[in-house]
User: Which sequence fits this backbone?
DNA sequence: TTTAGATACTTGACAATGCAAGGTAGTTGG
DNA sequence: CCAACTACCTTGCATTGTCAAGTATCTAAA
């Protein structure tokens, strides 16, 4: 898959996933992988960044299957960010799609 | 606009535009700008890269409005690249869209 | 002819982000 | 104890877009 396409979009995806329900990192990796090819070394730094930016809060929950799970919970600021990013994304995609159609129509 | 979204997609856009008809750099900047916010300092290096990669060939044409224009023409290799990238792009977008719907459905 | 302005393109330092590869820890079963 | 699985995290690297500055060429006005 094209790595470049993912740039920036993963932020939206992760924000969206967590906004639906609290999740821990590993869970997110598995969930997101169903739709887009991702590496866990991509997700963890991203989660850290989004937490630093106050879009997420975290809490630990013990697990019987390994080390404690760090859950991420979306904040109010995070919800605003989702809305903004989602809007940007749709606008961007529709612009690109229009361009593609424009360039492909006579074939 | 989100800078990151553009990563990789601009390559597709430029390839598509040139595959429709031969174009010179400045013309491309203006054309692409109609759909996506771009900087001319982004387009020129990209054109150079795509030419190095044998996706484009170039030729010069005199102009009455300034210096000679360097036209870019798509190669066979370039056409294959377009097809590949376009396919990747649609697959990627539909994956993301599915994810977005998945996360937004109960609201 | 020299100056100004538009056009056309190049270059280099910079920032963001994804990836591969590695490391740490806890739990369970052999 | 050791292997396998879960879960988490860090580091260095490559790619690609941005911005600022600079080069060069043409036209037209002074």
Assistant:
């Amino acid at each position: 898959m094209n790595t470049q396409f993912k740039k920036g979009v993963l932020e939206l995806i992760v924000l969206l996933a967590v906004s639906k329900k609290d999740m821990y990192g590993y869970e997110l990796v598995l969930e997101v992988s169903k739709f887009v090819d991702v590496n866990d070394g991509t997700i963890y730094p991203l989660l850290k960044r989004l937490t630093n930016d106050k879009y997420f809060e975290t809490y630990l929950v013990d697990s019987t299957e390994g080390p404690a799970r760090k859950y991420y919970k979306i904040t109010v600021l995070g919800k605003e960010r989702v809305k903004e990013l989602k809007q940007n994304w749709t606008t961007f995609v529709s612009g690109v799609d229009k361009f593609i159609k424009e360039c492909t129509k006579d074939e």
